[in-house]
Amino acid sequence: MIEALLHLAVLAVFPPLLVGVIGKTKAWFAGRKGPPLLQPYFDVWKLLQKGAVYSRTTTWIFRAGPIVSLAALLCAGLLVPLSSTSAPLAFGGDVIAFAYLLGLARFFTMAAALDTGSSFEGMGASREAAFSALAEPALLLALAIVSVPAGTFSFWEVFASLPWATWGAAHPEILVAVVVIFLVLLAENSRVPVDDPATHLELTMIHEVMVLDHGGPDLAYILYGSAVKLFLFASILVHLLVPGPTAAGLSGTLALCGGTIAIAVLVGVVESSMARLRLLRVPQLLIGASVVAAVGLVALFVRGQP
Amino acid sequence: MLWPFLLALGIHAAGGILALLFFRSNRAALAIGTVACVAASLIGVVAAGHLLLVGGAAEMQASWHVPVGELRVGVDALSAFFLLCIHLVSGLAAVYGAGYLGGHAHERTLAPVVFFFALLVAAMTGVALARDGVLFLVAWEVMSLAGYFLVTFEHEREDVRRAGMVYLIASHIGVVFLFILFTIFARHGGDFSFASLASAGAPSSSLANACFLLALVGFGTKAGFWLLHTWLPEAHPAAPSHVSATMSGVMIKMGIYGLLRALTFLGTPPVWWGILLIAVGALSGVLGILHALAQHDLKRLLAYSSVENVGIVVLGIGLGLLGQSTANPAMAFLGYAGAVLHTLNHGLFKGLLFQSAGSVLFATGTKEIDALGGLSREMPVTALTFLVASIAISGLPPLNGFISEWLIYMAAFRGGTDLHGAAAVATIAVIPVLALIGGLATACFVRAYGISFLGTSRTDATKAAHDPPLTMRVPMVLAAALCVAIGLWPDAALRLVERPTQVLVGVATVPDPLLGSLIAITRVSLVLLGLAALLALLRRGLLRRREVAVGSTWGCGYEVPTARMQYTAASFAEPILGPFEATLHRRADEEFPTAYFPREAHHQLLPGDLVGERIIVPVTRRALAALGRLRIVQHGRVQMYLVYILVTVVVVLLWQLSGGSR
User: Fold this and answer.
1) Which of A115, A151, A186, B603 is most buried per CB count within 10 Å?
2) Nearby residues of A43 by Cβ (< 8 Å), 6 or more positions away
3) A306 falls in which pLDDT band (50, 70, 90)?
């Protein structure tokens, strides 16, 4: 019970911090002071205080978009373990439910974007659809790499059965999974090199342009939702990299949060040190990620399952 | 408990014939046909549901003999499941059709279409009930022919006649393979009845392989497997929408039924059957949805998406077969259960999509996605049902498509864990394939829904649009409700597919943690809905005493955007199709601006079909050229024909005399 409450508390409070960490990292690289670490919280808080402006082209879909997206992302958050027990809604096969809940969130974000009738947002929705369709196989292949040897398709049991003792040397394919999931993290969370969250009205952007017409509490939901998504991907990575959260109680959760901060710093470093890919290159990156994951999976079979 | 099904079949047939007798009054014919179809469908649904939940099977043999076989009918859980699909989907379609055809009442006689619709449903019932090869083929042919007359409803249109012809030819090419298949079955079993076939045991492995391939091609043509699918995108858009709903929702599934039924006679499958089916399913799924994305015609898009969904069903069957060949009943159960449930699910949401698309056509007179836009204001009910069906067909929670795809994922995963070698690789390949199909389907249906129903109206066609009459709205809303119900209570849906799956697996088994997981999915769905409600209330509370303004869409400061500035369906699909261009065979019809004072310029991408244009058309042309030489004997002189007959008779006599027939 306490574990479940801890899970809910972390999910509700922690995610925006990661966005702040990325911002700080980028500022540090650029030699700037940067916005405060807690700026994302201030943003969400400020937006929640505001009224709203809706376009006259829009219908209820536009208003439902942020709500359904955030609900789906939070629901996905209840499937990924964040403390020393399994997640509140965990079940055998929750890996699939996780991927498809993200799909639901995306469906409504794209529909809301098309509802405005703006060609900017249509463009964003179209690109989001294209890239996520390619990212999805990569994500599930990478998750299959770790879950097939575990014999279960549930996050908690997969993470609990990872072979920690012989990690690096004997299981190089786990490293493949980690790299691929990191790539998917960058793509799904619209970070460099797939998308650039810093540019607001350039034709290269994907996610930001889909939410141009949202404001007030709706935008707060969207900002918070994207932080949740980033946090979930980061915590899956942490689970694969360190056996931290198996430590009982608060310390496990703290270790997990610390790990996600490290991932956020890494995202910031990637963002500061490389340019966004040309749009036409992005599918190649994502298909490449799928291929790498497939190779990892085949390697697993060739070596014989543990 | 066979009689309710025979009663339903009888009511369908009687309703059809009665409607034909009242051909002078469109209203009477339509009313009789609809009432009969609904009554029969209710009986069928209740009886099939009862059989699926309680169990049982029945078979009977009538004293009446068809020329080479006996009139054997029977029902088991597998038949009952398909009977449930048939009656559910066509019952809803009949009600919808009453409203839809009402719009045509002033221009043509409706009795034939009512009759052939009834005949189609009766024939499908017959296919599911037949326990004899000859009866099966007779019912199959009646089904195909009734389909032809329904497709050519608007027969004064050239393209409709052509579509009908393509469909008719495809059906008959397919059925040739079935004739061979059932002849082999009859030789193996002693007579045409399924009972003697089953008691004769599994055929030898080479014979079983031949039967499997024949069934794959014969039934695959009806089901629309890739390479055999080219009739689907022609026939479905040409037919009236309630017929498209029935054809796409259940008629093509009779191909799945036939394949499954044939597999029950073929014994333990070798591993390569499952691998082949997984390849066929992957090809149909991915290429089907890519072609759907490339379409501009709403109904053609839906037809291609049927190819995709049949692909998903075949992936499930392939996994089931692999589970059987490797003696892994848990995997076989998951694979078959997913396939069977997806058959029902697809019947529901594809029927619903065709009906919603039909309502759009009914209201605006066009199916061109790029001519629509903003319909959700004028047609709120249709927009909602189309949205529900779009989410469901994309396989997203909390709707029914997610459940069947989840089952197939679990089968693939189970196989990846338990199997070895090529079988394991083929199984695990299903996971990324299904993920890709899911992602592309989401893109396809966001596009179809978003461009047609959201934004602002692109042409005048949508100006006078309105929701269809009650008779059309009710079945749409009912189908949407069923999609939601199966999505929210998958454990109840599992009880429906449990028995037919056991018929296929051959062992009474339900993998242990499955039921618990399905109940957990209910929990996830309810939490999802609860969270959404909570967030909606929160926003409502926040906005209560604040200013909620209405403005124009942000256009970088530009205040008077026009409808033409919206993103189009073609542009939406472009970045998605880019990496897959080689599979699509699209042609560009374009004229670039030239010279210093350019005049008109245009660019249009015409979606094509690689299989149709690169394989079917050239092969047909060659075949026609080769067979043309035979025309030498076909010259129209009666005297020569008499000579042919004489020569034939003499040859047959000589053959008989020389003891040629033993």
Assistant:
1) A115
2) A220, A223
3) very low
